[in-house]
Design goal:
The complex is a heterodimer of chains A (319) and B (502). In chain A, helix 5 runs parallel beside helix 9. Chain A is mainly α and 319 residues long. Helices cover 66% and strands 0% of the residues of chain A. By secondary structure, chain B is an all-alpha fold. In chain B, helix 17 packs across helix 18. The chains are: A mainly alpha (319), B mainly alpha (502). At the A-B interface, helix 6, helix 7, helix 12 and helix 14 of A face helix 1, helix 6, helix 7, helix 16 and helix 18 of B. Chain B: This is ABC transmembrane type-1 domain-containing protein. Chain B: It is found in: Cell membrane.
Chain lengths: 319, 502
């Protein structure tokens, strides 16, 4: 729309004191996203948590800047209470306190956050890829292929996510976070598949697809080069929301003892480990909880901002 | 329509069958069912292993074991768990506890969520709308188990302590009054002056209310009493009439007011019946109420007969609920004393070996249900609120709503008749999805609150790699989800004429 206005009357706009700038789809989306204040705040918080979790205690053999380890025990300082204080601001030796055997709890929480984030990202990626492919193929080919794929999706939806995730978590929980993330991703793809199938069903009837088919474009190319880019909004938004759900799902499983297993740790596993310590050492309970909420909330806000940016119909234009 | 339902039934059956197969196989491969025995050092170790392998048919391939399980299920036999106990009695115990939890949470979430969602859609971009949206996002991001443990600490333990001497501190009264004022103000549309007036009214009303509650120590021995029941009943009568028929018509108003008055009178007259009723009697009273109110609406409704019948029934049921609540609250102090003044419980579904009359056992269940339901409801509440808000907004922007306004219909008719009904259609599909979530949530909640319900049976069975209990759990929950999905589909087709008539 902006393009045509720009092409038709380049001077008259300038004469009236209005300049019309041509923007690409990506630029418009970016502009709308950055105008969404909650989404921007979510993005900043999420970025901070990400940087904090991965640089502080180090990752994959690279040492971090935090001098305490999440494994070795130390002498209890101040009965293990958090030394973090805001006024006067001081971090102290153990900002998040220590657990019952003197392990620095900041390091432990950071390690847990790392593991939870890895699981969440893997779940998001696996669920998106599987769901997108299933939905795309079902929506494009229709007929028998669609019937079979959608029945499989129905079967998956019949099983409550937590139930199948728990069953798989029991088997893969102690194998480490990577296998756990992948199998959990295999449990939550149906939502994405259903959404994308709907998109494909309507897009495959559009003229540009007919044109592509008329010049003999192979089906695979139509699916992945012609239609899929048009569904990028739906994909990005539901991938974000799937990641937010994955954080909660992983922590719930670990809390039930069916996800990440000790000695490895995750935010849910930390809460599970110290749930009985709530009355004596509440901070062991607070910190991982706050991090779960911060991660899930910021990702949810990013998702909301992306939805508004890709599909502004529901939102009133902000003055 | 019948063909549609029949096809849906057949598909649902096969979907469920496939799902049971997946769960069975995955559970069987979830770990080593003999793990605990392998670490056993007693001399009977080998016999125990042999016995359990025999009982669980560990030497038979998984697919054959599944077929065997399926064959027994068809004959109505749930089998035994790995220790040889029959599963059927365990299941029936667990079922009622979990059903209570899931049902209470679902019903509450649906009603409250839809109401909040619609109000926030009608007041789009108001302070209320922003607050609700933000709260919904928080709810989406809260880990259920974390909330549950928090509730246990702050609501159960500290609230129980407070109930011993229920005086609300002035600071809290101030905060609650401020909150009431803000809610009133945010819900009002209009210029700044109107909103300020609404804020002041809300402030004064809620401030007075909580001061009175505190001074009279209402929480120690709560109750409503007939005058309050009458007052609430009359208020709802006016409210429901305004919603369904409009206050300018006399007929419906008289019908609802009569329903409220009769309800209040019954709270006095029915004393002997209500002293220690059974659920059957309560159900009978409910049916009687509905019948009487329908009659009232029919007799007094005049030209607005249909609206009058609806409004009178709603008023009557609501007043009845107030009478029920009043009786329940009157039993509170006796109940509280019998459980050592700790009415909000944190463990289990009922106090072991508790004996009491209808109201006391009712309170006992309510006290045990309170916290798990509060925890469980959060996510569904957020889902329903967001979903009904979006759906309502979409409908309100449709052309036919504009047409309805343009031809001069009152806003009430536009919202309730034209928008509300169509806005609710997509919400039916939500119910089926949400139910699966609530069941998953129940597994977590039962774990935190120590309910020995289905969730406990599931996690224990899974930890022990014992397909029997896991499958019993899944058979119930999976069937529930499938049935709800089917009902949602049929309801959707029924409610949406575009599908029904195609």
């Amino acid at each position: 729309m902006t393009l045509s206005a720009d092409a038709q009357a380049p001077d008259s706009g300038a004469e009236q004191g209005m300049t019309i700038v041509a923007r690409t789809q990506a630029q418009m989306v970016r502009r709308r996203f950055f105008r969404h204040r909650a989404a921007l705040a979510g993005m900043i918080v999420f970025g901070l948590v990400l940087v904090l979790a991965f640089t502080s205690v180090g990752f994959a053999g690279i040492p971090g800047w935090w001098d305490q380890s999440y494994i070795t025990t130390g002498a209890l300082v101040n009965q293990g209470k958090p030394t973090l204080s805001l006024a006067p601001f001081t971090i102290g030796e153990h900002p998040f306190g220590q657990d019952d055997i003197g392990v620095d709890y900041f390091a432990k929480t950071m390690r847990g956050a790392q593991q939870s984030l890895i699981v969440a990202f893997l779940v998001g990626i696996v669920a998106t890829v599987v769901g997108a492919v299933v939905g795309a193929v079902a929506g494009y080919y229709r007929g028998r292929v669609e019937a079979v794929l959608m029945r499989v999706t129905d079967v998956m939806i019949t099983i409550p996510v937590l139930v199948i995730a728990a069953v798989l978590g029991r088997r893969f929980g102690d194998a480490g976070v990577v296998p756990l993330g992948i199998v959990l991703g295999l449990t939550i793809w149906p939502t994405m598949a259903r959404l994308l199938r709907g998109e494909f069903l309507s897009l495959r009837e559009k003229e540009f697809v007919e044109a592509a088919r008329a010049i003999g474009t192979p089906a695979r190319r139509i699916i992945f080069r012609h239609i899929l880019p048009n569904t990028i909004g739906v994909i990005v938004v539901s991938a974000t929301l799937a990641t937010a759900n994955a954080v909660l799902l992983e922590s719930a499983l670990s809390f039930l003892g069916l996800g990440v297993q000790a000695p490895d740790t995750s935010l849910g596993q930390l809460i599970q480990e110290y749930r009985t310590a709530f009355s004596t050492r509440p901070w062991l309970f607070w910190w991982p909880g706050i991090f779960i909420i911060a991660i899930a909330l910021s990702i949810n806000f990013i998702g909301d901002g992306l939805r508004d940016a890709f599909d502004p119909r529901q939102t009133r234009v902000r003055a | 329509m019948i063909v549609f339902i029949a096809r849906r039934l057949v598909i649902s059956f096969f979907v469920l069958l496939a799902a049971t197969f997946i769960i069975f196989v995955l559970t069987a491969f979830a770990g080593d069912p003999l793990e605990d025995l392998r670490q056993d050092n007693s001399p009977q170790k080998l016999t125990k292993i042999a016995e359990r392998s025999e009982r669980m048919q560990l030497d038979v391939p998984v697919v054959l074991r599944y077929l065997g399980w399926l064959g027994r299920i068809v004959r109505g036999d749930l089998g035994v768990n790995r220790d040889g106990q029959a599963i059927a009695p365990i299941l029936s115990d667990a079922l009622s506890a979990t059903l209570q939890l899931v049902l209470a949470a679902t019903v509450l979430a649906i009603t409250v969520g839809i109401v909040i969602g619609i109000i926030s859609a009608l007041r789009q971009y108001s302070g209320f709308d922003y607050t609700v949206t933000f709260a919904a996002f928080i709810c989406f991001s809260l880990p259920l188990f974390w909330v549950a443990v928090m509730l246990k600490q702050y609501v159960a333990i500290e609230f129980n302590n407070w109930l011993k001497d229920p005086v609300i501190p002035p600071v809290v009264i101030g905060a609650l009054a401020l909150l009431g004022g803000l809610v009133f103000g945010a819900l009002t549309v209009g210029d700044r002056r109107r909103r300020l007036v609404a804020f002041a009214v809300g402030l004064v009303v809620s401030g007075t209310l909580f001061t009175v509650l505190s001074v009279t120590r209402w929480f120690a021995d709560p109750g409503l009493g007939t005058p309050l029941i009458l007052a609430f009943g009359l208020a709802t009568a006016v409210g429901f009439t305004a919603l369904t028929a409009g206050l300018q018509y006399r007929g419906p108003l008289y019908a609802t007011l009569a329903a409220a008055v009769i309800g209040a009178v019954c709270s006095q007259v029915l004393g002997p019946v209500l002293a220690d009723p059974t659920w059957l009697e309560i159900g009978g009273l409910l049916l009687l109420t509905i019948a009487v109110c329908l009659g009232l609406g029919y007799a007094l409704g005049g030209l607005q007969r249909r609206q009058a019948m609806t409004a009178a029934t709603l008023t009557g049921v609501f007043t009845g609920a107030m009478v029920f609540l009043d009786r329940m609250l009157q039993a509170f102090s006796a109940y509280s004393a019998s459980v050592r003044h700790r009415p909000v419980s944190t463990i289990g579904a009922r106090t072991p070996n508790y004996q009491g009359d209808f109201w006391q056992t009712g309170l006992d269940s309510a006290g045990h249900l309170l916290l798990p339901t509060m925890a469980l409801i959060l996510i569904s509440l957020a889902t329903y609120t967001r979903f009904s808000r979006a759906s309502m907004l979409e409908v309100m922007n449709q052309d036919y709503v504009r047409t309805a306004r343009a031809k001069g219909l009152p806003e009430r008719t536009v919202v309730l008749k034209h928008a509300f009904r169509n806005g609710l259609i997509p919400v039916t599909t939500m119910m089926a999805f949400d139910l699966a979530g609530v069941i998953g949530g129940a597994v977590v909640t039962e774990n935190v609150f120590g309910w020995r319900g289905m969730g406990f049976m599931f996690t224990k069975g899974l930890q022990e790699v014992d397909p029997g209990p896991v499958m019993a759990f899944f058979l119930v929950t999976g069937t529930t989800v499938v049935v709800f999905n089917m009902i949602a589909d049929i309801l959707y087709a029924y409610l949406d004429p575009r599908i029904r008539l195609s």
